[in-house]
Specification:
This protein is α/β, with parallel strands linked by helices. 43% of the residues lie in helices and 16% in strands. The chain is built from eight helices and six strands. The two termini are 15 Å apart. Bound molecules: flavin mononucleotide. Keywords: Flavoprotein, FMN, Oxidoreductase.
């Protein structure tokens, strides 16, 4: 199963490109599930260290479902809007809450394949730092981060939305970076 996580609080540009990716994967025979952070209740990590002792998070909220999905997935796609040159706070919350997964089993996410998508309102709004932040999370958790290859999508999928859903749909170059990265992603998943 491939899990797509949308880090936007809206059903807008980021959700659109993530849905495109998941639909393409479904058409290629992969089972997919999506988890939209929109309208979910996921509190920030409070660093209480309960998880280190009890092997689970003390906070019971929508993260409980996501823990199960993350463990089940063989591939993970994190898609984020660019906020202040990086990932959204919503996405950062779930990354931090994954400390409990590592406490439960250091190999919880090991060997899964990870793809990153960043959607910025500006042309040079911080898409690449956002992608690298997701890649850092992948590396820290034993997930293999996927590049889109040297010719056209070096770090992953990067979109320019001009702050509008209708504009992201017209971002041909963004879809080129996503398609190239999906090619590498499926290649890794099939091996
Ligand atoms: C709090 C906040 C901070 C933002 N910071 C940036 C930024 O640093 N760079 C950028 O390109 N766009 C920035 N934007 C614009 C969003 O990245 C852009 O509108 C994106 O398409 C939103 O994704 P969505 O439509 O899926 O919600 C910001 C938007 C918000 C709400």
């Amino acid at each position: 199963m491939i899990l797509g996580i949308c880090g936007s609080p809206r059903k807008a540009a980021t959700n659109h490109v993530l849905s495109y990716a998941l639909e393409k994967l479904e058409n290629n025979g992969f089972e997919t599930k999506s988890f939209l952070l929109r309208a979910k209740k996921i509190a920030p990590c409070i660093h209480c260290d309960y998880c280190l002792k009890h092997k689970e998070c003390v906070q019971k909220d929508d993260m409980t479902n996501l823990y199960a999905l993350l463990k089940e997935a063989e591939g993970i796609i994190m898609a984020t809007p660019v906020y202040n040159g990086g990932i959204s706070g919503q996405l950062k919350c779930i990354m931090d809450r994954c400390r409990a997964l590592g406490a439960e089993d250091i190999n919880s996410l090991r060997g899964k394949i990870g793809l990153a998508i960043a959607v910025g309102g500006d042309r040079s709004g911080g898409q690449e730092p956002a992608i690298q932040q997701i890649h850092s999370y992948y590396i820290l958790n034993g997930i293999v981060p996927i590049s889109g290859g040297s010719f056209g999508a070096n770090l992953g999928a990067s979109f320019w939305s001009k702050d509008k859903l209708e504009e992201v749909k017209k971002d041909e170059y963004g879809f080129k970076t996503l398609n190239k990265t999906l090619k590498y992603f499926t290649n890794y998943l099939e091996k």
